[in-house]
Amino acid sequence: MIHIYYGYGKGKTTSALGAGMRANGAGMKVLLVQFLKDNKSSELSALPFEIFSSPDSLPFNPDDTYCSWIDSAVEYVKGSDADLIILDEFLDITDKFIPVNTAVSLICNSKAEVIITGHSEVKELFDKADYITYFEKIRHPYDNGVQARRGIEF
After folding, report:
1. Under a CB-based contact definition with an 8 Å cutoff, are residues 37 and 89 in contact?
2. pLDDT at position 56, please?
3. How many other CB atoms sit within 10 Å of the CB of residue 151?
4. pTM for this structure?
5. What is the mean pLDDT of the chain?
6. From CA 54, how far away is CA 100, in angstroms rounded?
7. What is the DSSP string of the chain?
8. From 104's CA, which of 5, 65, 79, 127 has a CA 20 to 30 Å away?
9. By percentage, how much of the chain surpasses pLDDT 90?
10. Are 47 and 40 in contact (CB under 8 A)?
């Protein structure tokens, strides 16, 4: 089954990780790959499942090194024996850093349950999804100049 959590509301990653915690608690093997995020998110130290490490820092304009990391991450996912794979911010790299047909193939050829998060709709992935949940922001402190807070937003 394919799950998609998308939109501009807070909670997509948190929901995906919660599903991963549930799966882990049921004895399933879970893999997390975070795209467009560095290794500084606080939750990473508390997760009891496999993490394909992101780069320590991300360039403002992703370069060849980051694109090479994405290719490595895709290959890692292809070879994974996880029961649940979480591809955080995957919607946001599809068609920008990874061709849509490659993304669809990766998801559809996986034997695992797959959770994808991101901000925008990628029609070809949405057409394959079994679950689609939209997150809408009504209000957020960032709108009033409050920066992301460690332990709350990252």
Report:
1. yes
2. 78
3. 7
4. 0.93
5. 93
6. 21
7. -EEEEEESSTTHHHHHHHHHHHHHHTT--EEEEESS--TT-GGGGG--SEEEPPPSS--SS--HHHHHHHHHHHHHHHT---SEEEEETHHHHBTTTB-HHHHHHHHHT-SSEEEEEESS--HHHHTT-SEEEEE--S--GGGGTPPP-TTTT-
8. 65
9. 76
10. no
Residue with tokens 């669809």, as numbered in its chain: 104
Confidence of residue 61 (pLDDT cuts 50, 70, 90): low
Tokens 């649940």, residue located: 84
Residue 60 has pLDDT above 70, yes or no: no
**Among all chains, which residue has been given the structure tokens 């606080």?**
42
Q: Report which of 138, 102, 99, 133 is spatially closest to residue 116, judged by C-alpha positions.
A: 133
